[in-house]
Design brief:
Helices cover 34% and strands 22% of the residues. It is α+β, with helices and mostly antiparallel strands. A six-stranded mixed beta sheet has the order 8-7-11-6-1-19. Strands 15-16-14-18-17 form a five-stranded mixed beta sheet. It has a four-stranded antiparallel beta sheet with strand order 2-5-12-13. A hairpin with a 4-residue loop joins strand 3 and strand 4. Helix 1 packs parallel to helix 3 and helix 6 packs antiparallel against helix 7. Ligand DP6 binds next to helix 5.
Length: 416
């Protein structure tokens, strides 16, 4: 390692994911080992992702991290576990052009700077920890020349946040709970890539909420300690659903996919209610969205849309194709119109072509929408949804090679 004050950095982008068979409950809190397998869909990083730049330099005096523009403490056990695991797997690095050589031993001593941004509001409660921790692991692994494959990296990301392990892949991903006490077999695997089922369109309703939510970590701890229902779920229900969901994904069988995803979301919220004290993640708006989708699906005689809710009130709605997504968006905008001073451009974000397909070009078009035929008495609930994101299943993590996309100043090693 030369004595100059060089900075070496890597920038990566990692998607978030939404579980369609939920992870809820740990058998080991420290290693983050779950009580059941789970399955997720990776969301298009073009609309929802974390970008992280990591850098090393002999000039850095300690490990530092900036999240969404603010420096935060790196002392948390989970960050430290991830850093330790990656450092222990670092291998020799050489940049001949710049005359920089870092040996496996040097990595132990070199301090890192980490700068991370979400391209969506963290406050929206959209699994930012999954994308964030996965991105941290992926970018550090690239920086430190870690040779392990994505499954091995997923086992490290898992120790940062359970759901993060599924963000190491695009498309459809299964987190295998594993049996080993050391967690070596608790890894994520890809079931199918994002191209396998590219008809699906996902609309997320970011639901307005003033309520401070129980964190997933403490919520699931309380559930495991106090709920009887969770035992039945983990032992009897989920293993069967995992097999059925894998088959539904393999066959692109939307009716089975939707039935399983909705049932599993509902059961997850039922075990939350079965927890002492009970946990309420969904609110009235979430319930209204479920009722609307259920009525529509029943009216059509076969599922058009699947819904799923994580540890918060936001609805993730998966429609079988673009045409259905446009009809869904019309229904959602009829029921949840924006405030009169809103800007349509920021009320529906992501893939705006769905808005076009729905025939909506300005706020007047929303006011002119008719109630859905299957539910003519639908009331308008203005202001109950903050905004909508139109997206689709997406790819896994990627390195951003273009230096201009780095979040770290290459001279100072500090955030740009
Ligand atoms: C409801 O992964 O956030 O989103 O492992 O304690 O960090 P920790 O929890 P976290 O829990 C996610 C729970 C969920 C369901 C899921 O993503 O499978």
């Amino acid at each position: 390692m030369a004595a100059e004050k060089w900075v070496v950095s890597v920038t990566a982008q990692t998607p978030t994911n939404i579980a369609v068979i939920k992870y809820w409950g740990k058998r080991d809190e420290e290693l983050i080992l779950p009580i059941n397998d789970s399955i997720s869909v990776t969301l298009d990083p073009g609309h929802l992702c974390t970008t992280t730049s990591v850098a090393v330099s002999p000039a850095f005096t300690h490990d530092r991290i900036w999240l969404n523009g603010k420096e935060v403490s790196l002392s948390g056990g989970r960050f430290q576990n991830v850093l330790r695991e990656i450092r222990s797997r670092a291998t020799d690095y050489e940049d001949e052009k710049r005359g920089i050589k870092i040996t496996k031993k040097d990595w132990e001593k070199l301090r890192v700077h980490i700068v991370s941004y979400n391209n969506f509001p963290t406050a929206a409660g959209l699994a930012s920890s999954a994308a964030g921790l996965a991105c941290l692991v992926f970018s550090l692994a690239k920086l430190m020349n870690v040779k392990e494959d994505h499954s091995q990296l997923s086992a490290i990301a898992r120790q940062g946040s359970g759901s993060a392990c599924r963000s190491l892949y695009g498309g459809f991903v299964k987190w295998i709970m594993g049996k080993e006490d050391n967690g070596s077999d608790s890894i994520a695997v890809q079931l199918a890539d994002e191209k396998h089922w590219d008809d699906l369109v996902i609309i997320i309703a970011v639901v307005s909420s003033k309520q401070k939510e129980t964190s997933s970590t403490s919520g699931m701890r309380d559930t495991v300690e106090t709920s009887e229902l969770i035992k039945h779920r983990a032992k009897e229900v989920v293993p069967k659903r995992i097999k059925e969901m894998e088959a539904a994904i393999a066959k692109r069988d939307f009716p089975s996919f939707a039935r399983l995803a909705c049932a599993d979301s509902n059961q997850f919220h039922a075990v939350c209610l079965d927890t002492l004290p009970p946990i309420f993640y969904m609110n009235d708006t979430s319930h209204r969205i479920i009722s609307g989708v259920e009525k529509w699906n029943r009216h059509e005689g076969t599922p058009q849309v699947a819904y799923t809710f994580d540890a918060g009130p936001n609805a993730v709605l998966i429609s079988k194709d673009r045409k259905t997504a446009a009809l869904l968006l019309q229904r959602l905008l009829f029921q949840f119109p924006p405030q009169s001073d809103a800007d349509l451009n920021s009320y529906v974000i992501g893939d705006k072509t769905i808005l076009k397909d729905a025939g909506i070009e300005d706020l007047k078009d929303i006011e002119a929408l008719a109630p859905p035929p299957e539910n003519a008495s639908t009331q308008r609930c203005r202001g109950d949804v903050s905004y909508f994101i139109c997206t689709k299943p997406g790819r896994g993590p990627a390195v951003l090679a273009d230096e201009s996309q780095s979040l770290i100043n290459p001279e100072t090693g500090l955030p740009k």
